[in-house]
Amino acid sequence: MQKEWKQPERSETLKGFMSVDPYVISAEKPGKLYNLVDGKWTETKAYTKVIDPMNGEAFLDMPKTDLEELKVFAESMKKCPKTGLHNPFKNNERYVMWGEISRKIAEAMHTECVADHFARCIQRVMPKSYGQARGEVKVTAAMIANFSGDNVRFLPEAFQYPGDHMGQRSTGYRWPFGPVCLITPFNFPLEIPVLQLMGALYMGNKVLMKPNSKTTMVMEEYVRLMIYCGMPPEDLNFIHIGGALFEKIYELAPIRQTQFTGGSDTAEKLALVTKGKLRIEDAGYDWKVLGPDVSNVDWVAWQCDQDAHALAGQKCSAQSLMLMHKNWAKTNLLEQMKKYAEKRNLKDLTWGPILSVTNKAFEDHRDSIMKMEGSKILWGGNVKKDHTIPECYGSFEPTAIFVPLKHFANPEYHKILTTEIFACFQIITEFDDSEVDQVIDALERVSHHLTAAVVSNDCIFRNKILGHTVNGTTYAGIRARTTGAPQNHWFGPAGDPRGAGIGTKYAIQLVWSCHREIIFDEGPVPETLPASTQVAILSILLRLYFIII
Length: 549
Known about the structure:
This protein has helices at residues 12-17, 67-78, 93-109, 112-125, 130-146, 151-154, 191-202, 216-228, 243-246, 249-252, 264-273, 297-309, 326-329, 333-343, 359-370, 411-417, 436-444, 459-467, 505-512, 531-548; strands at residues 31-32, 35-37, 40-42, 47-51, 58-63, 159-162, 168-175, 179-183, 206-210, 236-238, 257-261, 278-281, 286-290, 319-325, 376-379, 399-402, 425-431, 451-455, 473-476, 514-521. The chain is of the alpha/beta class. β4 and β5 (58-63) form a beta hairpin. α12 packs across α14. It is globular.
């Protein structure tokens, strides 16, 4: 694949931090990854192979961190106090420092050769189209640019109220947790990790970061860029390690907050391991409702294809369920969606390896749905042939299955139909005006509430759906989508007090800091004690007098 890529001329910046070359790594020339602990890049006693998702060949050597090596990370995290590396009363100059580091990183990532480097790194470990990969780099760079200059120091902003008397005032601050953990997913190996990591560091925390092992190369390259741009390397520990062993860190070090993005089963397990000190952005069985007002069919078809099939559906915001008013069924919407789906291919990576769903899991799920009366495959449904994708990864076609709405009322069927398949797989159903409440009931019983879309400019219909649902990031209007996590708005789930956000000032404050109230009471001190205090003192003196006599 990389043989067809055209590489831009490399800058001194890229040469200054690059450790792994995405244009070169292969089974013959594997790249090598490292851990970062106490400010130093280190090797481990043993290494493991990372396979190329396009052909199954081992093309990266990754540290296989063992328990004794993990203990070094634990000791490093213990060095960070619960007050953090900086806070509103300590090391204030570090807020300014991070604004300047962010400026340098954003400046570097806006250059063609650095942006291309990260896009190609993404493509090598998480195959997606170049446009999708560059989009990920663009959003990441934009978020970092947003926090250049003074915006880092604005994050712990205080609010203040006057007290009960002169010299008294109550002030609320955002305070770091100190030693924290960040566990990130494979599907957006740059954007999600970076947006969460930067927020954690901005707030004054020391971070122990564990990216997904399949795609960790991308973040190691980014960490190297951070250090090149002035980050004190001791601020961040970066580890390659299996998830089961990594859980030991919570026994070894006082981790005060963890942010996890990934599957819901792992999230629930971590909630117990961390004793609730956790913010999660987990599974998203994301739905889209198409209202009765049909318009712009071509656009809606294109957007539905993007939501369901881009990145082979491996987005936590991907369209898993589309409920369309029967007015849409009278158009060529489904035919156009099918046309777009069938154009996706491995050559341009508009379709690619599915890293977390095997072909067998797909076929079993497909078959369980096809047993429901009236179900039919609208497109896809088969495993693709003639490719070199390794058997450990999925390789099935973009797939849509029509299921009658009535089956969502059956609890057993509802559980099957709303099981997220983290891939290019969706359920489509239809409803009429008399069945809107059935649609709302089906959505009410969905267990996770990340993204949603209400494709309608009919404000009465739209408001009814919005008023009876809770998804944390919901798009509404004829251009509504389910996917898209840019840096300019909140992205995260709702309906769960553990829910994490990403991308905005508020999200950073919510996830990576806690509230601290400081009440200043500086005087002047009254010349006489309050009357009630005088009475109390007199009462005590009288009691002592009677005891003595």
